[in-house]
UniProtKB/TrEMBL annotation:
<dbReference type="GO" id="GO:0020037">
    <property type="term" value="F:heme binding"/>
</dbReference>
<dbReference type="Pfam" id="PF03712">
    <property type="entry name" value="Cu2_monoox_C"/>
</dbReference>
<keyword id="KW-0479">Metal-binding</keyword>
<dbReference type="GO" id="GO:0009055">
    <property type="term" value="F:electron transfer activity"/>
</dbReference>
<dbReference type="GO" id="GO:0005507">
    <property type="term" value="F:copper ion binding"/>
</dbReference>
<dbReference type="InterPro" id="IPR009056">
    <property type="entry name" value="Cyt_c-like_dom"/>
</dbReference>
<dbReference type="InterPro" id="IPR000945">
    <property type="entry name" value="DBH-like"/>
</dbReference>
<feature type="region of interest" description="Disordered">
    <location>
        <begin position="24"/>
        <end position="55"/>
    </location>
</feature>
<keyword id="KW-1015">Disulfide bond</keyword>
<protein>
    <recommendedName>
        <fullName>Cytochrome c domain-containing protein</fullName>
    </recommendedName>
</protein>
<dbReference type="GO" id="GO:0004500">
    <property type="term" value="F:dopamine beta-monooxygenase activity"/>
</dbReference>
<keyword id="KW-0408">Iron</keyword>
<dbReference type="InterPro" id="IPR024548">
    <property type="entry name" value="Cu2_monoox_C"/>
</dbReference>
<keyword id="KW-0349">Heme</keyword>
<dbReference type="InterPro" id="IPR014784">
    <property type="entry name" value="Cu2_ascorb_mOase-like_C"/>
</dbReference>
<feature type="domain" description="Cytochrome c">
    <location>
        <begin position="52"/>
        <end position="143"/>
    </location>
</feature>
<dbReference type="InterPro" id="IPR036939">
    <property type="entry name" value="Cu2_ascorb_mOase_N_sf"/>
</dbReference>
Length: 449
C-alpha cells in the first residue's frame, strides 16, 4: 500500500519551519515525522568468571560458561522457547560447544545488531571479548563440565513494572495460519483500550502465549478516523478476528507504541515520560508467528500497558524518517537509498527503531553539524528477524541546524531473493516482497508539534 504522505512537522506552523530535506533520488520527503505505513557486537560487562579464575585452571561449564549462557542465551534457548535447541544445561550445551564458539565469534549470536561504538544503548545483548575467548577455549579443550557444587550464575537483565493499567488481550486462542508451504504468519489483532481521555504510555510488556512460535510483537495505536479502514481489513480476512499484516498494520496513520522480540526486557521509558494515546483510539497488535517449532500451535499473546499518572514531564513522540520513494533495480546487489532532513531546532533523542524488509543489507543514521558526523545507530548486517527498539542510556541532544541522514543498503541480486524468486524492481510497500527504508526516532515532543 502506498504511503499517504501526510507529514507531521517538527515545529509549530508559522513559527518554525524545516530548513530543507534531500534524497539521493530527489523524491524522498525526508521529514522526521512523516507517517509512512509500516509494520516494523557490542561490549558489555563480563558475566563469566574472573580472569583470576581462568588463570587458576581450565575453563569449565559450571564455573565459566553457564553464567555467560544464562545472561545472554537461555531466555530464547530454553524448553518451549523460540530457539530451535536448548542451552540451559551442561548436557545440552556440550554437544554444540564448537558451533556455539563459532556463533559468538561471528557475532551472529546473541542477536544484537547495532554496531559497537555507535550509540550507547540500554539492555544490550552482547558478550565480551574475554567471554568469547572463554567459550572458544572451552570448546577446544573438550567442553569440560567442572564442579556443579561451585556453579556460578549469570546476571539476567530485568525490568520490574508492577501492575499494568490495561492488558491488551485479543480474547481468543489464535491458530497460526502461514501461507501454504511457509512457516511465517503475520497477524494483526484489534483491541479497544476503552479510553475516555488521552493517556500516556510509559511502559510496555509483551506476554507471549506460546513462546515456541511468537517471534516478535509490535503495538500501534490507531485514531478514531481509522475505524472504517480497520473494519475493511477485518472484513477482508474471514479466517479469524483481526487481519493478516506482513509489513505493518496497513493503516494510513498508525502510531507505533512499542515492540518486543525474544530475549528483550520490557520497553520502559520511565515514570516521567510517555507517548500519547488519543481518546477513542484502538490498539493494533501485530504478532509474527514462526510455526517451525510447533506446527498448528495456538497462541494468545497479551500486552501489558502502563500509563503515567497524568501528563508526564516529558511527552515523547515516535516519528518516522523514511525514504518512501525508493527504487531498487532488479539485479542490483549494491543499491543505496538515503534521505536527509535539516533540523531548525535542537531535539532530544531517546531512542531509534530502524526498519527494512528482506532485501536489506545495512542501515544507519547519523547527524552532521559543522561538517562533523555523529553516528546515532549503525546496523551493518541487517536481519529482518532481529529488528528491535533501541533506547539510549542517556538522551542524545541533536543541535539545531544539524542534518540527520538515514542510509539504507539493499541486495536485490538473484542470490538474495526471498523464496528463490526472480529479481524485480522493488519499491516502497508493506508487502512481503516490497521494501522500506525507515527509522523511527523517539524524541521529546517539541512545543507546537
Amino acid at each position: 500500500m502506498a504511503a499517504k504522505n501526510r507529514w507531521m512537522v517538527l515545529c509549530l506552523a508559522g513559527v518554525l519551519s524545516v530548513a530543507g530535506c534531500s534524497s539521493d533520488n530527489g523524491g524522498g520527503s525526508g521529514k522526521i515525522g512523516e507517517q509512512p505505513e509500516t509494520d516494523t557486537g557490542s561490549v558489555e560487562e563480563d558475566t563469566g568468571g574472573s580472569d583470576e579464575d581462568a588463570a587458576q585452571g581450565p575453563v569449565t561449564y559450571y564455573q565459566h560458561i553457564k553464567p555467560i549462557l544464562e545472561s545472554n542465551c537461555v531466555s530464547c534457548h530454553t524448553e518451549g522457547g523460540i530457539a530451535p535447541f536448548v542451552l540451559d544445561s551442561y548436557e545440552a550445551a556440550k554437544p554444540v560447544a564448537g558451533g556455539l564458539a563459532t556463533a559468538v565469534e561471528s557475532g551472529s549470536m546473541p542477536p544484537w545488531p547495532p554496531q559497537e561504538g555507535c550509540g550507547e544503548f540500554q539492555h544490550t545483548r552482547a558478550v565480551t571479548a574475554d567471554e568469547i575467548a572463554k567459550i572458544r577455549e572451552w570448546a577446544d579443550t573438550g567442553a569440560p563440565e567442572g564442579d556443579p557444587a561451585n556453579a556460578a550464575s549469570g546476571q539476567v537483565d530485568t525490568v520490574e513494572l508492577g501492575e499494568p493499567d490495561f492488558v491488551a488481550d485479543p480474547g481468543f486462542d489464535y491458530v497460526g495460519n502461514p501461507p501454504e508451504g511457509g512457516i511465517d504468519d503475520y497477524h494483526c489483532f484489534v483491541i479497544d483500550p476503552q479510553l475516555d481521555q488521552d493517556r500516556f504510555l510509559r511502559a510496555f510488556e509483551s506476554i507471549p502465549g506460546n513462546d515456541s512460535i511468537v517471534h516478535h510483537v509490535l503495538l500501534y495505536s490507531a485514531g478514531p478516523d481509522e475505524a472504517s479502514r480497520i473494519q475493511e481489513l477485518e472484513d477482508e480476512d474471514t479466517s479469524s478476528p483481526g487481519y493478516t499484516c506482513f509489513g505493518g498494520p496497513r493503516l494510513s496513520e498508525p502510531t507505533l507504541l512499542g515492540g518486543w522480540v525474544p530475549g528483550t526486557v520490557p520497553l520502559d521509558f520511565g515514570a516521567d515520560k510517555g507517548i500519547r494515546i488519543e481518546q477513542g483510539s484502538k490498539l493494533v497488535m501485530q504478532v509474527h508467528y514462526n510455526m517451525l517449532n510447533d506446527p498448528g500451535g495456538t497462541d494468545r499473546t497479551t500486552v501489558e500497558l502502563h500509563y503515567t499518572d497524568g501528563t508526564p514531564d516529558v511527552e515523547l513522540a515516535m516519528l518516522p524518517l523514511a525514504q518512501t520513494n525508493l527504487n531498487i533495480a532488479a539485479g542490483n546487489a549494491e543499491a543505496v537509498e538515503t534521505v536527509s532532513i535539516d533540523l531548525p531546532i535542537p531535539i532530544d533523542l531517546y531512542g531509534v527503531v530502524p526498519h527494512m524488509h528482506l532485501l536489506g543489507k545495512s542501515i544507519d543514521v547519523k547527524y552532521t553539524k559543522d561538517g562533523q558526523d555523529t553516528c546515532l545507530v549503525d546496523i551493518p548486517e541487517w536481519d529482518f528477524d532481529w529488528q528491535g527498539f533501541y533506547l539510549y542510556k542517556d538522551p542524545v541532544r541533536i543541535p539545531g541546524s544539524s542534518r540527520v541522514t538515514l542510509t539504507c543498503k539493499f541486495d536485490n541480486s538473484p542470490e538474495n531473493q526471498p523464496d528463490g524468486r526472480t529479481p524485480r524492481d522493488v519499491t516502497w510497500g508493506e508487502g512481503t516482497y516490497d521494501e522500506m527504508c525507515l527509522n523511527y526516532v523517539i524524541i521529546k515532543r517539541p512545543p507546537g508539534l
